[in-house]
Protein 1
Amino acid sequence: MSTATPDKPKYTIKDFASDQDVRWCPGCGDYSILSAVKKVLAQRDRPPEEYCFISGIGCSSRFPYYMNTYGLHTIHGRAPAVATGMKIVRPDIETWLITGDGDGLSIGGNHFMHLIRRNVNLRLMLFNNRIYGLTKGQYSPTSEQNKRTKSTPMGSLDFPVDPLCLAIGAGATFVARGVDMHPKHLIETLSRAADHKGTAFVEIYQNCNIFNDGAFAHAQDRKVRSDNVIELVHGEPMIYGADLNRGIIRNGDHLESVTIGENGVTKDDLLVHDETCPETVAFSLARMKYPDMPEPIGVIRAVDRPCYDDLVNEQVEHAVETRGNGDLQKLLTGTETWDVNG
């Protein structure tokens, strides 16, 4: 491994790239996310062997193969349980959990919720392409209503799951959103997630150009995204637009998009973003949806709370201090057994 100098970082992107051929469809947004993650890790002063990437099933879940770190490709929807165990037994390993809207919010929805409410100290990236890509284009939990797919030829009747609202409702201490084709902003967002103590949840809009191409064109296309998304910055007014002439204000119990200079609205009237905002405010931001409102990207909420893995290890240490080391053989052959009679 190379040694850092004032002009050379200690680690580079190549240090985190495995020798496996990356096998996603040409043009898939996953390539951009993979590149962003490697750049984030290269900026941190930790060697590859101090990271672990854990995934479930799906296109996104091939991620561990492409990282020169420890990795586990687990089973459908159960990656959060494996990642929780990883953080408890090896708290020194920085753990990243990779999932998708199908893997994480359908069969894995229960695990997703409990991971977040426990606040396990790991980074959770959910690649949201609003479709099942690996199994060839069925509608997913985040697909819009009336979505026509191979499994819903007459249109889906389901109302979609909102990943951000679900995370906030489960008590997430860090909630953010990024866009695959907005790499600079995505790197900044993932860097913030990497520094967070607790479950750092980042939803990433990711284009599936084979089965759901253009699902997030409003947030990806450089020609229009300035008018359709709002980059949240802590302590700064919520302002957006190609000419930075639009913003967000509170009108009663809801948020409203306004044009600066119209109806006497000034920049001073705009809401100022506060990452420590109450959950109710975070919900309001998460529910801002295109085309009626600009969609927020960046860190929506970041607060502090004890981590589950720390609490578990503290409890174990206390038990050892007060009761001594356990003896498995003594436990198995002791008197505290059950007799099961037919």
Protein 2
Amino acid sequence: MATLAELATLRTDLSDATVDHLLRLTASWSLLADLSFSDLLLMARVDEPTNRGAMNFVVLGQMRPNNRSTLLNDDLVGTTQTSDAWPLVRLVFDSGTRVVGEVTVEKVGESVPVWCVPVRFDSKVVAVMVRLQGPLRGPASLYEQAYLSIFERLCSMVGDATFPFREDDVAGPGMPRVGDGIILLDGLGEVEFATPNATNALHRLGIYASAEGRTLRAMGLRVRVVERSLEFGIPAMEEVDRGQDVAILFHCVPLFDHGVVTGVVVLVRDVSDLRQLNRVVLNREAAVREVHHRVKNNLQTISSLLRLQARRSDEIETRTALQEAERRVRSIAVVHEVLSREPGEEVVFDEIVRSLVLLVEDTVLALHPVEIVVNGELGVLSTDLATPLAVALAELLTNAVEHAFVGFGGALNEHVGVVTLNLVQEEGYAIAEIRDNGRGLRPDFSLEVPTSLGLSIVRDLVRTQLNGTITMKSMSYAEGGGTLVRVVVPTSVRD
């Protein structure tokens, strides 16, 4: 289905600024649908040739009420309506005033009471908002009468181009709706009426006195957004807390009459349960973050112990083995360090890669200059994938820096080694390629019979724990020489 902007561009001659105004209206008009207990349609004139005297309209938007069954089961957005079927809509375009009457709607099959409200922008009627009124359940109650009165005042604002507001939407997902509770204030901020749900919300805040005829401040409740809406005439939202157990959301919608603020509609929602849930989630995240932080600290302690033990050893082989073990522990700690900042089931692996490169550069003692270059990125990976992959990449980078250039070309001091790490994620796989410009592999090299513990660890991690593949090969002179290691692992669980 085409969007309002697309329909307006294809079917009408409305300017971009006008379309933006209509988009703001449709972003906020769920409030109007609920206040009027009615379906709403937004129609604009079609910019295309018609028979002489005829006029066609395109339906740019449709809104159903949240508190009453809809009259229109079908979606009319994008359909063309004729002036013969909607004579009152044409009358609004011709007269520029609100028209009230009845229209026989094809999809309903009977006459329906309608309001046709001019939508004015830049002193011109650019569209018509049609209210299709459903049958009321008996005589209108006092609250229904109040709702309809507010709706009529907002319709006047639509006709004066003072609604919708430029500052913000006043309705939509996540915002209070009419059924949550309404407090109507006059131009002095005094309460004209409050619905039962709104009264209950005030009770939750400790306000038990009768609200009618008094300001919220006089009742001991300071809501800054009410004062802001009355003084400046702009919509605003504020959450008022009472201790840690009660949170009430106030959303103020100012009412205008010829440019003067004559009142404020305050939509009220009790969000106490939601805030408590948020606190539970935040506490859980804090606990998970603390766990990762402690794991990181424990791993760093183990790393320090291994490093101290390596310094005390007189055997070169023992010292080397302890240093390698210490580096592997630190590479695992890197992952937990990132998770301690942003806990969750996924992690931005590129942050881990940067830390791994620094780790290799700090811990590897090469006898010749070596530069590590990283190209591309793997983006977000699951934590189950990130930890073993980080260990494998740290091992492969270390192996390339330490061994790829030993005895290369007989000119160790003049040869600058380059180790390139290429990363890419495509079609559900994370691909890492480690390329060096060193001496290459021995002719009898086989990954199935690795000559070092590090390669054995990498092979087993990739094939067993990551369910991936790893290949190593020497590159020809024409290809630039050196060694290419390619690791491919699935980013999700596969059968």
